[in-house]
Design goal:
eight-stranded mixed sheet, elongated, about 55% helix, 8 strands, Rossmann fold, 13 helices, homotetramer, alpha/beta, NADP binding (chains A, B, C, D), N-(1-d-carboxylethyl)-l-norvaline Dehydrogenase, domain 2
Amino acid sequence: MQIGVVGLGRMGQIVVNRVLDAGHDVVAFDLSEEATAAAAGAGATAADSLEDVADRLGEEKRIWLMVPAGDAVDATLDELAPHLDGDDVVVDGGNSHFEASVRRAETVEAAYLDCGTSGGPAGADLGFSLMVGGPEWAYEAMTPVFDAVATGPDGHDRMGPAGSGHYVKMVHNGVEYALMQAYGEGFELLANGRYDLDLESVAETWNNGAVIRSWLLELCEEAFREEGTDLGTVADHVSGGSTGTWTVQEALEQEVPVPLIYQALAERFGSRDEARFSRRLANRLRYGFGRHEIVREE
Amino acid sequence: MQIGVVGLGRMGQIVVNRVLDAGHDVVAFDLSEEATAAAAGAGATAADSLEDVADRLGEEKRIWLMVPAGDAVDATLDELAPHLDGDDVVVDGGNSHFEASVRRAETVEAAYLDCGTSGGPAGADLGFSLMVGGPEWAYEAMTPVFDAVATGPDGHDRMGPAGSGHYVKMVHNGVEYALMQAYGEGFELLANGRYDLDLESVAETWNNGAVIRSWLLELCEEAFREEGTDLGTVADHVSGGSTGTWTVQEALEQEVPVPLIYQALAERFGSRDEARFSRRLANRLRYGFGRHEIVREE
Amino acid sequence: MQIGVVGLGRMGQIVVNRVLDAGHDVVAFDLSEEATAAAAGAGATAADSLEDVADRLGEEKRIWLMVPAGDAVDATLDELAPHLDGDDVVVDGGNSHFEASVRRAETVEAAYLDCGTSGGPAGADLGFSLMVGGPEWAYEAMTPVFDAVATGPDGHDRMGPAGSGHYVKMVHNGVEYALMQAYGEGFELLANGRYDLDLESVAETWNNGAVIRSWLLELCEEAFREEGTDLGTVADHVSGGSTGTWTVQEALEQEVPVPLIYQALAERFGSRDEARFSRRLANRLRYGFGRHEIVREE
Amino acid sequence: MQIGVVGLGRMGQIVVNRVLDAGHDVVAFDLSEEATAAAAGAGATAADSLEDVADRLGEEKRIWLMVPAGDAVDATLDELAPHLDGDDVVVDGGNSHFEASVRRAETVEAAYLDCGTSGGPAGADLGFSLMVGGPEWAYEAMTPVFDAVATGPDGHDRMGPAGSGHYVKMVHNGVEYALMQAYGEGFELLANGRYDLDLESVAETWNNGAVIRSWLLELCEEAFREEGTDLGTVADHVSGGSTGTWTVQEALEQEVPVPLIYQALAERFGSRDEARFSRRLANRLRYGFGRHEIVREE
């Protein structure tokens, strides 16, 4: 089948390659001519505008958006709108908020599939995990493409109606934060504990048969192998956090306790603040009630 | 090579089978004659006492203990003591506290290896992850057996001196608690969230290519397949907790923050207490300052 | 001076009484004629509509709203609108969200003061703590009334521009949740600990000179005196949570870690859910990897 | 009555003064001759050794120890031992672990009272809160002294048998950590939030009538008054932690969840570690799965 791919950054390029490898035709477009040319070099048909993408796809268009979540999605959809009708299918493969996806599904003429995509650049070889929300017929229509982009037929499924794909992906990311922090706590204790340990060896041993083996633990093993058991120059600063924040916000709405996910997010916030006010106040209060010496900044 | 295996419960029996399958000879003993007979049926030589185990092994004995952590280990070692000397090697494959292992390594005549064993009954087929502490020569001497019991050469390693194997296993279990709780929070939010989801499908999709894929997530998938997406009659009661408690205690000693591991442990404690006092007091205090109606038990 | 008080529930009635006691004149109105009559019995002038309130106050109206946060505030303001101009002052003494207060301050013709009110029914005798946001001149104009409603001149202050009063009150309530949970944890440990303690005696001793003495601790003391050291029939169910939720939401926006406030809120959520899904899954997973017996509901 | 006071640091000196002010006689001793002389200057009788203290007190000795918790208590008791019998009473007013107090109560010939003392240097004027464990007759015998050292008769009580006084004080301190952190989180949010607030004014307003008013909040007010609303040079480093650690350890033993107390303690640990390993690993893992740029130390 034929599919348009819009947005050819790292992830979009992987989508193009996997779809081409599966024997499908791709019409590719990116605001960067260079990125479009690269896709063409890989075997895709280059388009020079969104209108051109639409023209080349003809009737029953299937378009995969891999543009940054937020305004770029709306801008793309606005420009595509005149060319779309109810027989077309648009997939948003980015990290959009599920409420934005529900809104878009209601306003776009085409069938709209929100598609949570997990696996990162490693998915180039292995394929991704795809969590899809939207109309059943559209999901069926896209199945050959999902088979190609995902690890295979088991690597994608329709979660439910509009928004459910990005909803499940949002929660996935919240869990991801907590898993990273959980491994981090374990290794922090080992790094500061009673034994002089080779953490790469610990991670490798765990990855072979232990209950906590996982892909994230394989990445820990890789990190220790590449950075050293003390993580070398890697700084105490964790960027990102939007999908984790969304997860906690939704958990507040649903009144579901998510203490580990919350705390993992809070650790990120804390990592960006050199001098936590709450601790500075505690330092001062200990003088207030106990005349413990105040620690001062130099 | 020849090895004695003492303690033939579920885990001990797996050790026996894997060592036999690798072509080694096993002298097996359990306080239960039935368990000893079962091992003999699988190809081991049955011993009828610890003394008999020692006699049959001759010089340079290699003995694997798979008895319950605690007094049983000390009782077994006391009884074996007259038969051990510095050329022998004893492995403790159970969940002993690392400080007990350090103490035993100092008092037992033989070389003593503390061996954290992870993987559970599933290790019967796949092999275990073995984290070993103790003298290097003894670890080398046992390598053929470790190769057989573990998933292979990558599934075991010497972590460091006495106690380090059980130390790393203790931390492994603390991380395990947090991982379980992290997945649980994600699924709890999905189960109570905006969409009517098939959690087995969610878990399966995640297990195929998603960042958070892991063996524990495969067990989640299995749980939803076997119990239903609402977990059926599975109760809100989590038993166990000793290794998690040890991990937090050690983190307190080392002044390392482990908020996720702590909270995962606290959730277990909370699951066993039907009416948390702290919440009952909060309920009452809201009346105290705001005249909010007190919720009473019927 | 003369002031209109609209909304004569428990808190509104206290405002009327304290303002009257300070020698001011009150025009009182409530949708309940009974409540209006009660205020009249206490010395206020009864009004039979919002229009009547406005008419009786003449120029430079000062009106205190003590109606439930949310739609009731907007409905009241809509009905008052035709009678208000820039010389008038309206105070919202309820628990409105600060963003609603900012919006109202922008749309209401009169000067608008958002006034966080803390102290609960006990404020009838002691006076309240009032955190006020809005124009300085309006705060000044209301000072005699604030003096009367608060504990005195120290019991109220202008925090800043529109919304700041309710903002500070929101954070106050978040802290309140955490303080309640902190005391609760201490008493829960004492109630389940090694000694058979009289918790009223503990609280009383602490309230006399200990570092943690506070009004909330006095309410703990009262709770144990009135309910018994085991809290009798008080249930494990904590209602409420909106201002705490707002606090955590704002902390997420500002990327400020508030782990104690979050956890105190999560405990409330947890208290309303008889069977936490995350724990049920953990129970099941322990079978998955370790064949630990699953605890089933009867 | 007559009482010996041993240990004349800041707290011991306050005990001496309050007992003298109440009209009792004091025999004072400290290893520092200067401290002993100061007590003599205040009206106490100076002793030049522990034996001298014992000699001067005669029969039915009453001795208050205010020496640092730990070895100093045992050393003092060892030296006093030959002079003590069952009619004597020894009070340990320091922060000893309750298990040490139970042990001492069993081994010391005299009646032994463990006395948790809260209030800090401010107790010089106001008196302390005293939580006492030990034999009832001994508590009765010391009542006049407790009346003098505490805020009055309500400021002390017998909690129960040996150890219970220090047990209740330990939990008091755990709660204290959590209260400090709770206020700190609120002020941290206000300091980083949407409004430019005067935190001294916030604290003062809250201290006058708000639900969360407390002595610790008065100390916050003092801190902002003395350091400025941004806390000036006060560093993000919180020392101490032993009694909080004991509280969490005991809660682990009793399987009582204390998430706020734990997290408050973890914040202290975190404040002393410039680069948290867990966060450094999370930083690196984000590169591992998403090729997010690694933040490096310069």
